Amino acid sequence: MLSNSSKYALTAVLFLAANTDEHQKKMVKDLSISTGIPKAYLAKLLQQLSKHQIISATKGPKGGYYLTDENRNLPVYSLIEVIDGTHRMETCVLGIEECNAERPCPLHDHVYPARRAFLDTLKKMTIGELSRDLKNGSSFLTAQQ
């Protein structure tokens, strides 16, 4: 359901949420090394996320990317929405444009409830909530952590 771009973006944002603040920022190259995300690809994703205020950025010698409390309070879904839009998350898993509750595809009634629950979770869960398990060590993003 999530594109590779959204997976990379979510990984990077969660890493930033667990490891940065206004005083401790990460440069693209360092973030790329820590997450294993290709540097050029990551740079484009971070620019897009910064432009939409999902993450924060400062230019200059002490610059880099980081998350503020305001960024951490955003729902995870907002990040997915910026990267993928809503179409990918909301459309038929078989790609049938006409699929809906009144005229369902063969998988609609089986997939829709789980998808709805997943989307509702992403809309309620904040970036900060999801990053707490990283901070306390009960979950991980990369083998390097």
Give the arrangement of secondary structure elements:
Elements lengths: L3 H16 L8 H8 L3 H13 L4 E3 L5 E3 L2 H4 L3 H9 L2 H4 L17 H17 L2 H10 L9
Antiparallel strand pairs: 1-2
Helix pairs in contact: 1-2, 1-3, 1-5, 1-8, 2-3
Protein model, in words:
Helix 1 (4-19) packs across helix 3 and helix 1 packs across helix 8 (127-136). The chain has 8 helices and 2 strands, in the order αααββααααα. The protein has a two-stranded antiparallel sheet with strand order 1-2. The protein is elongated, with a radius of gyration of 17 Å. The protein has helices at residues 4-19, 28-35, 39-51, 69-72, 76-84, 87-90, 108-124, 127-136, and strands at 56-58, 64-66. The chain is mainly alpha-helical. A hairpin with a 5-residue loop joins strand 1 and strand 2 (64-66).
The portion of residues assigned to helices is 55-70%
**What is the helix tally?**
8
Strand content: under 5%
For the biggest sheet, the summary is:
2 strands, antiparallel
List keywords for this structure.
145 residues, mainly alpha, two-stranded antiparallel sheet, 8 helices, 56% helix
Summarize the structure.
This protein is 56% helix and 4% strand. The protein is mainly alpha-helical and 145 residues long.
